[in-house]
């Protein structure tokens, strides 16, 4: 009965790396080129920041690339230990990616919860990934949109049916995290705007979130 792992996303400076780690973040997320969203960084900057992350803290590259070779090149350049694939890519590309990336590089597939149809994505992706991440957004819009909130009832069902770890994103903050943990019981929590003020990581909000996340146990993490 432990607190879910905490991923602080949209990290954009060495100061934010230090602040997030000091307050107990298990994972840091670095946002590469995207159609939309906050804290988008150049690949050179991501590589520099990854070098500042202490041992024991995982690093996720958020990539919008959809072809296995392009994703593998992106991860190799940026130097993260995990890749978060933000589009719903063809599972065939995941299969190819498994042969292009070192086995130690974890692959996380984002699932954009637009309807209950996302439950149909569990089986095709499961053999090829290490974890799912549930988020909001409209990846197939004319200009793809990522982030926001979604239907937690669908997320709870997804966690129950998935055999791989599931991280939860989308509108999390200190006021709703305890409810999210209780209702969904995710393996991990992913947040960006909920701990920021004017696009900067806010220490008070970060402290409040960590305290709230520890108030109620997550139950047995989904694995």
Quick overview:
This protein is α/β, with parallel strands linked by helices. It is 32% helix and 21% strand. The protein has one domain (5-213): TIM Barrel, CATH 3.20.20.
Q: How would you describe this structure to a colleague?
A:
The chain is of the alpha/beta class. It has a single domain, classed as Aldolase class I (TIM Barrel, Alpha-Beta Barrel). 32% of the residues lie in helices and 21% in strands. It is built from eight helices and twelve strands. It has helices spanning 14-22, 43-50, 68-78, 91-100, 122-125, 152-161, 177-184, 203-213, and strands at 5-8, 27-31, 58-63, 82-85, 106-112, 131-135, 137-138, 145-146, 166-168, 188-191, 196-197, 200-201. The strands form three sheets. An eight-stranded parallel beta barrel has the order 1-2-3-4-5-6-9-10. The chain has a two-stranded antiparallel sheet with strand order 7-8. Strands 11-12 form a two-stranded antiparallel sheet. Strand 7 and strand 8 form a beta hairpin. The longest helix has 11 residues, at 68-78. The two termini are 14 Å apart.
CATH top-level class? Alpha Beta
What's the Cα radius of gyration? 16 Å
In whole angstroms, the N-to-C terminal distance is 14 Å
Strand content: 15-25%
Largest sheet: 8 strands, parallel, barrel
Give the overall form: globular
Q: Kindly report the name of the CATH homologous superfamily.
A: Aldolase class I
What CATH architecture label applies? Alpha-Beta Barrel
**Helical amount:** 25-40%
Instruction: Report low-confidence residues grouped into runs of 5 or more.
Output: 140-145, 217-221
User: How many DSSP helices?
Assistant: 8
How confident is the prediction overall: mean pLDDT? 90
| Strand neighbour order, sheet with most strands | 1-2-3-4-5-6-9-10
